[in-house]
Structure formats: C-alpha cells, structure tokens
Write a structure and sequence with these properties.
Number of domains: 3
Distance between the termini: 29 Å
Largest sheet: 7 strands, mixed
Structural class: alpha/beta
Strand content: 15-25%
CATH architecture of the largest domain: 3-Layer(aba) Sandwich
Shape: globular
Strand order of the largest sheet: 5-4-17-16-18-19-20
CATH superfamily of the largest domain: ANL, N-terminal domain
Radius of gyration: 24 Å
Bound molecules: adenosine-5'-monophosphate-propyl ester
C-alpha cells in the first residue's frame, strides 16, 4: 500500500525549516527532549503537570496496573480553573479567549477570558438549578457557537460528564449516545446554519429523546429571534432563561484526577460505537503539554483549529488544549467552500491566524480548486500549519507547505486517536519533515511498528503501530464496557494496539498507511462498517448489507454498500435514493454510501461472517488473499 503515497523508502525527500523555528520553539531540539523524557518518564510528566494549578498535589505520578493506569494519583483539580480562572486572575484577564464567526461577516462574537469565565459560571449555575450534579451525564448536541464551548466547560465546572454529539449526526446516532450514557440533560439549539440554510436540530432531539427515559430536561439555545421555536415547558427550557438571575460565580468542583471528564463516542469495528472515557487530570496535562509543545503556542498567537468540538480534535485542540494555554482561539460555524473556496484564507487574513490546524481532506479539496483562491489573500501571519485525521499524502503536504505556508511554516502532521486523547506522533517544529510520514513519537510517548508477536519490524516492512507505555491522556475505559477497553491492550501483549498499519524508515520516521480493521476513514472521520450496515438493514427493503471503503483522491475513502434485498423488493434508482435518505436520517450525512450495488449474495465464511476483504479485492481488482474459509 505504500505505493499509494508515491514514496519509495530509499528516495528520501526532506524539508528542513529554518533553524530559527527550532531555536525559538518551546520544544527545542527533538532528540534532547526525547532523551530527557526517556531518562525520567515520571519526572517528565511531573514537570509538565506542575505548570498547571491543582487543589491538591499527587502522591504518585502514575500507577500502572496493566492494562489500567491512574495518573496523578489522589490529586485534586478542576480543568476549568486552569482553562479560565488561571488566566482571568492574571494579566490575561482581558485577553481574547474566543473569537467566533458565523457564515456572514456580521455574525461575530468575541469573549475575553474574564467574560468566558462568567458565562461558564452562569451556565454552570443554571445546570445546577436543573439538578445536574457531579458525575451526571449531559449530552451536548449543538452547532459550533460559543455556547457549545460554554456548555462543555460548565459541565466540567460542576463535575458533570459531558458527551458532545456532532451536530451532523442523525436521530438514531444521537439516541444511541443519549441512552448509552443515560444522559440527564440534553443541550441543543433551534438551528445550525450551513451554506446559507437553517438546519433544524431541535426536531432531531425531540425524536431522539422519545426512547431515552433518562432525559429529564432539554435546554434550547434559540438563535432565530424573529421566529423563536416553541418551548414545551414540561421538559424544555430556554438557554438564556436558565441563566437569568443566577450568580456570575460558581466555585469549581474539586475533581479527583481520575474522575471522568467526558465521554466521546467513536465508531467501533463491530457492534455499537464505543463511549471513550477520558479522565480529568491526565487529559488536562496531556492536552496542555502537546498544545504548548507541538503547536508552540505563545501569547501572541491567533490559533485556529477547524475541527468541530463534536470530534476529539475539537475537544483537545479546539477547546481544552488552547484554553489551558491561554491562547486566543478562532472558532467558526463556516464551511470551507461556502460561499467560495476561499473562506478559510479570507478568515486567516482577517483574523491574522498564526497557527492553523486542519485535515488532509480539506487540503485536497483546496488543492483541487486551485491556488488562485489562497493567492488572493495575505497569509503571511501564518507560522505553524497542522494536519490530522488521515494520511497527509506527499502531494497535499507539498501544496500545503508551498502554497499556504510559502515554504516558511513547519507542518506538524499529527497522528493520534479519540482513544489517545492527545497527539502521539509528529515531526516536532524545526526537525526535517518527510512528506508522507507523520514522524516520530513525541517526547512523552513510546511507540513502535511491530509484527503480530510484538517484535519490531525492520525499516521498510509494514506492521502494526503500537504504544508501549501508558500516557496521561489515554482513555481510562469504555463506558459500561471495560472488557472492550482491555482488548486494546490484549492483541499484542503489553502494548496498546492502535489498529493502524504503519511502516518505519531507516531514521525512525513513521508512515501511517491506514486502518487494519473494519473502520473506514471518510474525510477524516471514522465510520464503522458495522454501523452503516446495520443502518441499511434497518430499512424494511433490505435483507443483508456489506460495506467497504474505496480509496478516493479527495476524501481518502468513500463508502460503497452491497445490498441484498428482501424477497419481492425490486432494485432501482428510487430504492437507492430511499436507502441513502434512510442512512442520512439514521446516522447522518457523513455516513452516506456514495455507491450502492444490489447483489444476490455476499462472500461469507463458513461461519457466516461477511468477507469484506473479498468484496474490496473484487471491487479494486486486487488479489483477495487467502479465501480458504470462503463458503462455496
Ligand atoms: O487511522 C488513524 C487516523 O485516524 C484514526 C483515529 O481516528 P479518530 O479517533 O476519529 O481521531 C481522529 C483525530 C485524532 C487513526 O487510527 N489518523 C489520525 N491522524 C492521522 C491518521 N492517519 C494518518 N495520519 C494522521 N496524522
């Protein structure tokens, strides 16, 4: 598969940023920083944690009882104290924390650290008024607006566990997450705005809570003041009414370092999505440290991570990491190609963005529409570029580096996962960058590429990417399913298996090739084949379905579905549309197959397991490999 990336291991091409990048960075020399970590791993994380404020210090940096770790044992903290109070009580008091932009120029809001703290405290008091207590789950299903971040931080303030659901998910995905966490309160908005259209969210929530008995209250942010949606008072409450008359102060709940901070669902290879649980202390230290050292955030930076807080990137690098560092963050409810493909470049120029973190799928879309769009804007404020979510192929790297960074800005292609909570591999600022390769484990992380027995593979040979030591922001468990958590550490004894295939070069640079399991990464988002299949099968016309990922130049992968119809149902374009619509409603637009093929049978093992690998090989004209278990 390495050929897909046009990289031959022996034809190394490196880009070396100017020496000043490294000299002026927090991280400095990579090798020195990495060796310092290896010499004293606990001491390394101990000093990172000491840069933050704790209500009570730890007795021990980590306690490792394979496969469960505890970090900053017995320490007490509140992450919002470090995201907000620490700055609001310092010279950063009136520094801008959030700059929000909607789709049009006149939709803008700016909050300083002092103002954000007040908003969070007021909303936290509002949640307490609704009876939300420490440990309760609160589901946040909102567009990217300041209130979305306020809601997350308000939960953390009082020790409630937030579970943010991406606003593009449909009814059944939302219902599953509300039921899975037994959420007491759901926070939503009337609309999200996309490409000039108002997309209703409240209706989706109304349907999603029908079979979710845990829900006691729904909080609604009404954005359309002219035609306010109706509030049904027996269950619903207006966002602003909830904050009326509450105090501007709310003491931060002292949390144990191991108390859960949030649950975020990610697609699983089989069955239902997994509720990844992150803990307060370790997550705080991991995201604080990486935002500072991987993005090199300084006080003068204008930081923009384009990810929606509905994904882990938005949690770690759109909200918590940058606020922990007292950064000024841009957040937007914009679409990169609306109204023109220059939206992002326009925003970078207008806000003077210095650090820009985005996804390969967006970069490839920009590449396709041409450099005349970015070239109309002054992008000279940029100093660091970041990429995440899927492999950044060399052509896209080159384009990002030259056309956007003008050959001046280091690119940090960061590899990590919902489960890891923080960035794990990259090429740190100032080190030579090798297009197609993410780079090396960052200081704080021990990773390698190994075979099935856990033995490191020689350079140039593909293997599995593994993490060999626990790290502070690792997931602690899977909500209500610790057995499933243990599997991550079982496949290769002693190691956390990331389920990604990778290859290492002679210098230790790692190229991530793709998933080794049944996940399809579409435009940087993980979609489980099982989820799409069960959405299809839930349609009354479908008897069976199998889904595969097909390589796609823009999105990385697209979804193709093979469908067996129930007796008496006729294939046709109308039914294809119905099925597409059905997937849109149940899972959301991101999971829609771009192709649906009606078939009479599916390749299966004798035990009845669908062999997607065989379908994929047929589809792509490749060798299907071992088919000895295939049923006749
Ligand atoms: O396959 C890898 C890919 O995205 C997966 C994790 O997806 P998720 O949990 O949704 O988190 C995405 C954002 C952190 C990984 O197992 N992936 C992530 N970053 C990269 C990547 N593949 C290649 N290069 C990356 N930089």
């Amino acid at each position: 598969m390495a050929e897909n990336f046009n990289v031959r291991l022996n034809e190394a091409k490196y880009y070396t940023p100017e020496a000043s990048c490294r000299e002026q960075s927090w991280i400095g020399d990579y090798n020195r920083a990495y060796q310092a970590f290896l010499a004293d791993p606990d001491g390394f994380w101990d000093s990172a944690a000491r840069e933050l404020e704790w209500f009570q210090p730890w007795d021990q940096v980590r306690e490792w009882e394979y496969p469960h770790a505890r970090w900053f044992v017995n320490a007490k903290l509140n992450i919002t104290y470090n995201c907000l109070d620490r700055h609001a009580h310092s010279q950063r008091r009136n520094k801008v924390a959030l700059m929000w932009r909607g789709e049009t120029e006149d939709e803008e809001r700016i909050l300083t650290y002092r103002q954000l703290l007040q908003e969070v405290c007021r909303f936290a008091n509002g949640l307490s008024r609704l009876g939300v207590r420490k440990g309760d789950r609160v589901c946040i299903y909102m567009p990217v607006v300041p209130e979305q971040i306020v809601a997350m931080l308000a939960c953390a303030r009082i020790g409630a566990i937030h579970t943010v659901v991406f606003g593009g998910f449909g009814v059944s995905a939302l219902n599953q997450r509300i039921r899975g966490t037994a959420a007491k309160v759901v926070i939503t908005a009337d609309f999200t705005y996309r490409r000039g259209k108002a997309i209703p969210l409240k209706n989706i929530v109304e349907e999603a809570v029908v079979k979710a008995p845990s829900v006691e209250r729904i909080v609604i942010l009404r954005r359309d003041a002219e035609k306010p949606v109706e509030i049904h008072p027996e269950m619903e409450v207006d966002y602003h009414d909830l904050m009326n008359g509450v105090g501007r102060e709310c003491p931060p709940e002292p949390m144990d370092a191991e108390d859960p901070l949030f649950i975020l669902y990610t697609s699983g290879t089989t069955g239902s999505p997994k509720g990844i649980v992150h803990a307060c202390g370790g997550y705080m230290v991991g995201t604080y440290y990486t935002t500072k050292h991987i993005f090199d955030v300084k006080d003068s930076d204008i930081y923009w991570c384009t990810a929606d807080p509905g994904w882990i990137t938005g949690h770690s690098y759109g909200v918590y990491g940058p606020l922990l560092n007292g950064a000024t963050c841009l957040i937007t409810e914009t679409t990169p190609d609306y109204p023109t493909p220059a939206t992002n470049w326009d925003l970078i120029e207008e806000y003077g963005v210095t650090i820009f973190y985005t996804a390969p799928t967006a970069i490839r879309m920009f590449m396709r529409v041409g450099e005349e769009w970015p070239n109309r804007y002054n992008l000279s404020s940029l100093r660091i570029l970041g990429s995440v979510g899927e492999p950044l192929n060399p052509e896209a790297f080159e384009w990002f580096y030259q056309t956007i960074g003008k050959g001046r800005c280091p690119i940090v292609d960061t590899w990590w996962q919902t489960e890891t909570g923080m960035q794990m591999l990259t090429t740190t600022i100032g080190e030579p960058m090798r297009p197609g390769f993410v780079g090396k484990p960052i200081p704080g992380v021990v990773a390698d590429v190994v075979d099935k027995t856990g033995k490191p593979v020689p350079p140039g040979t593909g293997g599995l990417l593994v993490i060999k030591e626990p790290w502070p922001s690792m997931m602690r468990t899977i909500w209500n399913d610790d057995e499933r958590y243990c599997k991550y550490w079982d496949t290769i004894p002693g190691c956390y298996t990331a389920a990604d295939l990778a290859v290492k070069d002679e210098d230790g640079y790692i190229m991530v090739i793709g998933r080794s399991d049944d996940l399809i990464v579409v435009a940087g988002h993980n979609i489980g084949t099982a989820e799409v299949e069960s959405a299809l099968v839930s349609h009354e016309a479908v008897a069976e379905a199998a889904v595969i990922g097909k390589p796609d130049a823009l999105k990385g992968n697209t979804i193709k579905a093979f469908v067996i119809l129930r007796d008496g149902r006729q294939p046709g374009d109308k039914l294809k549309n119905d099925l597409t619509y059905h997937v849109r409603l149940t899972l959301g637009p991101i999971a829609i197959p771009s192709e649906i093929e009606f078939v009479r049978s599916l390749p299966k093992t004798r035990s009845g397991k669908i062999m997607r690998r065989v379908l994929k090989a047929q589809e792509l004209g490749m060798d299907p490999g071992d088919i000895s278990t295939l049923e006749e």
